[in-house]
UniProtKB/TrEMBL annotation:
Residues 7-122 form the Gfo/Idh/MocA-like oxidoreductase N-terminal domain. Keywords: Oxidoreductase. Pfam families: GFO_IDH_MocA (PF01408), GFO_IDH_MocA_C3 (PF22725). It comes from Granulicella cerasi. The keyword Isomerase does not apply. Residues 132-252 form the GFO/IDH/MocA-like oxidoreductase domain. Belongs to the Gfo/Idh/MocA family. Residues 256-289 are annotated as: Disordered. Residues 279-289 have a biased composition (Acidic residues). This is Gfo/Idh/MocA family oxidoreductase.
Length: 289
């Protein structure tokens, strides 16, 4: 592929993931071209992105030799077969979390990507959240001294299951650990690498639920000793802090989530990446401290 040509990207799916987390950013990044969108039914993708080719099946898209990169943003159970088919078709692949339902499937995709000589990457967009980048900066500066404990939480209040949502359906690859777990655990791994020990509690807290709707994952590190706790629940009417970092020189506490997701869901437009203007700055009162 010539470096002077844009990378032609096809996004598979135009639900929340494709509409909010993939298509807007592909369109905003120089060097990427939103060349295609797979939307089986409806015309919302064509209305939002009239210059993109709308494919009615993944097979139709994969048969297009001009597509370089495929972003898979579909229900969890489809991630493995779609990513495998894309790699076999000679495409680079980005896959929403969770990449697959089992580690064996992930290993198969990794091995296949090496055979095909293609990039395979999970979509870990939460590495770019403002609060996480602040924590990363504080750790790099040593501002809190030796850090002994970190609490990272995603909490929502949804006491009743959402009717008709595939995320609420029983399955081997649904549930909150597969939904929010990859975000908080990946952030820990990005900061500190592989832990010495891992323990977890994965549970059901709501009165009516077909999925595991709460979890606590504890990653323990040695030399120096650090306990990193990742949590999520759907029964938090009064959310606890998003981050609590406790060190020998002080603590950092951050409430609230990065404003990008709610803004995009509400229809905000992503500016071109070369724009010098800050985008969705949080007020100083929300910076944590």
């Amino acid at each position: 592929m010539s470096n002077s040509l844009p990378i032609r990207v096809a996004v598979v799916g135009f639900g929340l993931g494709g509409r909010v987390f993939h298509c807007p950013f592909v369109s905003a990044v120089p060097g990427l071209e939103l060349a295609g969108i797979v939307q089986r039914r409806g015309d919302s993708a064509a209305e939002a992105y009239p210059s993109a080719t709308i494919f009615r099946s993944s097979e139709e898209m994969l048969a297009d030799p001009s597509i370089d990169l495929v972003a898979v943003t579909t229900p969890n159970e489809t991630h493995f077969p779609l990513a495998k088919a894309a790699l076999e078709a000679g495409k680079h692949v980005v896959v929403d979390k969770p990449m697959c339902g089992t580690s064996a499937q992930v290993r198969e995709l990794i091995d296949l990507s090496k055979v095909q000589g293609k990039v395979l990457a999970p979509f870990h967009n939460r590495r770019f959240d403002g609060d996480f980048l602040t924590v990363k900066k504080l750790l790099a500066e040593g501002a809190l001294g030796r850090v002994a404990q970190i609490f990272s939480r995603f909490e929502r209040f949804r006491p009743e299951p959402r009717a008709g949502s595939w995320k609420e359906a029983s399955g081997d690859d649904t549930g909150l650990l597969f939904d929010l777990g990859p975000h908080v655990v990946d952030q820990a791994l990005a900061l500190f690498g592989t832990p010495a020990r891992v323990s977890a509690s994965v549970r059901r807290e709501r009165d009516q639920t077909a999925i595991d709707d709460a979890f606590t994952v504890v990653l323990e590190y040695d030399q120096p000793a650090l306990r990193y706790t990742c949590e999520a629940t759907l029964l938090s009417a009064e959310p606890q802090p998003r981050f609590v970092v406790q060190g020998t020189r002080g603590s950092y506490v951050k409430h609230g989530v990065d404003p990008q997701e709610p803004a995009l869901v509400g229809g905000a437009q992503v500016p071109p990446t070369e724009s010098a203007e800050p985008w969705l700055d949080e007020p100083e009162s929300a910076w944590g401290g």
